[in-house]
Specification:
With 91 residues, this protein is an alpha+beta fold. The protein is built from one helix and three strands. The longest helix is centred in the C-terminal third of the chain and has 32 residues. The protein is elongated. Pfam families: Rv2632c-like (PF08962). This is DUF1876 domain-containing protein. It comes from Streptomyces dubilierae.
């Protein structure tokens, strides 16, 4: 049996200042659909300035939101193809 390999590329971009990090995530699916999500992190004024940590938190939140959108999209496609309401997809 032959298997088809598909690859997805996820892009993450960050915007930062001294106390806030914002992340924007985007994945382009093979059908041309783009799914986008955002994440945010805030540094408490008593915490050390560690930009990488802010990126990790904001990036994780953006990727989590992206994952939830992809689950919702898949769930809707299952319902459309089957003509019925399917069981929720849980993480």
């Amino acid at each position: 049996m032959m298997h088809t390999t598909t690859g997805w590329h996820v892009e993450l971009e960050f915007m930062e200042d001294d106390q806030h990090t914002r992340a924007a995530a985007m994945v382009r699916l093979p059908d041309g659909t783009e799914v986008r999500a955002h994440g945010h992190a805030s540094r408490h004024r008593s915490d050390a300035n560690q930009p990488r940590v802010g990126e990790e938190i904001a990036g994780a939140r953006a990727l989590n939101e992206l994952a939830m959108q992809l689950l919702t999209k898949a769930h809707e496609e299952i319902d459309q193809a089957s003509g019925r309401t399917s069981h929720p997809i849980h993480v």
